[in-house]
Write a structure and sequence with these properties.
The protein is an alpha/beta fold. Helices cover about 35% and strands about 15% of the residues. The radius of gyration is 15 Å and the shape is globular.
C-alpha cells in the first residue's frame, strides 16, 4: 500500500517527517511519502460563529488529491487549524470509511492548547495515533471497544493519550486482510 501525506497550510516539517516515519513502521510493507504540493487552507472553510474550520471542507481537498493521485492508495491530510464536524464541538480528524482520504489536525493535539508546556515528542505521539486511526477508517475499520487500541474513539485528549499507536489483534487482522487485498488488485 502506498500512503501519501498532504500538508494543507503551514505545518512543522519535523513533525510531518516523524509522523511519516511512524506511519511506515505501523503499516508494515507500505510506502509512506510526502506529497510535494502543500495547498493553503481555504478561508471559505472558516466558520466565523464557531471560530473553527470545517473538517468536511478540508477532507474534500484531500479527497480531490486522492482522485488525481492514481498511484497512491491512501492520502492523509494534515492541518494545523481547529476543525469540527456539525454535531461535535471539535474533531482530531476525519476520514472516509472506507475510502482513500483521511485528515488529522495538530491543533488540539498540542499540549500548549491545554495550557501545558510545548512538547514536540507528545505532539508527534498524539499525531501518530490520530493518523493511524484515520487511516484505519480508510481501510474500513470502525471504532474499537478496546480502550488501548488505536481505533478506539477519542472524545478527549485523555483518551488519545491512553490508547496506543497500534491496532489490537482483532483490528490488526482486518488491516492485514485489507492491505493484502489491495496488493492483489490490478
Amino acid at each position: 500500500m502506498k500512503i501519501g501525506i498532504l500538508r494543507i497550510g503551514k505545518i512543522d516539517s519535523h513533525v510531518v517527517d516523524r509522523i511519516q516515519e511512524n506511519i511506515s513502521m505501523t503499516f508494515r510493507k507500505s510506502i509512506c511519502l510526502l506529497i510535494a504540493e502543500a495547498p493553503p487552507v481555504p478561508q471559505e472553510a472558516f466558520d466565523k460563529a464557531r471560530r473553527q474550520y470545517s473538517s468536511n471542507n478540508m477532507l474534500s481537498i484531500v479527497r480531490n488529491y486522492a482522485k488525481k493521485e492514481k498511484t497512491i492508495d491512501r492520502i492523509l491530510g494534515i492541518v494545523n487549524i481547529d476543525i469540527y464536524v456539525p454535531n461535535l464541538s471539535f474533531v482530531f480528524g476525519e476520514a472516509e470509511c472506507p475510502g482513500k482520504a483521511a485528515l488529522i489536525s495538530l491543533w488540539r493535539l498540542k499540549p500548549e492548547f491545554y495550557g501545558d508546556l510545548l512538547n514536540n515528542e507528545l505532539v508527534i505521539e498524539r499525531s501518530t495515533k490520530e493518523a493511524v486511526h484515520e487511516l484505519g477508517h480508510t481501510l474500513g475499520l470502525e471504532h474499537c471497544h478496546n480502550p488501548f487500541c488505536v481505533m478506539h474513539f477519542s472524545n478527549s485528549i485523555f483518551e488519545t493519550d491512553r490508547k496506543q499507536s497500534l491496532f489490537c489483534n482483532k483490528c490488526d487482522f482486518k488491516v492485514e486482510e485489507t492491505v493484502n487485498s489491495l496488493r492483489r488488485q490490478p
